Amino acid sequence: MARRSDHTPEALRALILDAAEAIVAADGFAALTARGIAARIGYSAGTIYHLFENLDEVVLHIEARVLERLEAALTALPPTKDPEAGLKALGRSYLAFTRANPKLWGMLFEHALPKGSKTPDWYAERLGRVLAVLERGLQPFFRAEHAAERIRAARVLWASVHGIVSLSVADKLTNVTTESAAALIDDLVTTYVAGLGHRKRR
After folding, report:
1. Are 162 and 127 in contact (CB under 8 A)?
2. pLDDT tens across 115-150, in order?
């Protein structure tokens, strides 16, 4: 078994996170254990707790990696002059990302911190950057002074798209419709944008 001196603390943290991510990607969040991580990297399970407070902290760092990749996928979309088309593209990109990373994406919603624990600020900032992409996509539909309404709308729309995506990834969408997830996302965006336009005219 390797000794702690074989790697710097920074390198060892990266090894732990890489191993943990590989376990989740292959076998799902339920398969993640400190012993499983240790076996992959050739260290004792106790080594993990020298570098991370607990397994929850390890999971949060993996989740942050997933959110960073999701943000990169969303921001890589080509610009468009049609804001509605841009929102549809964001929804479809989110769908594609979850289909490509189903178990890692699922971990974000399966994992829960112990009752009374506070989500770290750095994690909230990472999640906020993903939601900010959608907030920017909604800018054309709101006046500058209505920023709070735009932020709320971004979360409403994301939660709605998330519902469709969740059913699709779980292969449950066919229980309620014969339409594809992409078609439902497009319809949702069209309807939501029309609603925003109606509110704006009132």
Report:
1. no
2. 999 999 999 999 999 999 999 999 999 999 999 999
CA neighbor of 157 nearest in space, from 137, 172, 177, 182: 137
User: How far is CA 62 from its chain centroid?
Assistant: 11
Contact 70, 94 (CB under 8 A): yes
Task: Give dist(CA 67, CA 120) in Å, integer.
Answer: 15
pLDDT in tens, 147-177: 999 999 999 999 999 999 999 999 999 999 9
CA–CA distance, 62 with 15 (Å, rounded to integer): 12
* 44 Cα distance to chain centroid: 30
Q: Across the chain, which distance is largest between two alpha carbons, in Å?
A: 69
Report the alpha-carbon distance of residue 45 to residue 169 in Å, rounded. Answer: 33
Segment 12-71, tens digit of pLDDT: 999 999 999 999 999 999 999 999 999 999 999 999 999 999 999 999 999 999 999 999
Q: Are 193 and 96 in contact (CB under 8 A)?
A: no
Nearest to 70 by CA among 138, 152, 162: 162
Single out the residue of 127, 132, 134 nearest to residue 161, CA to CA: 134
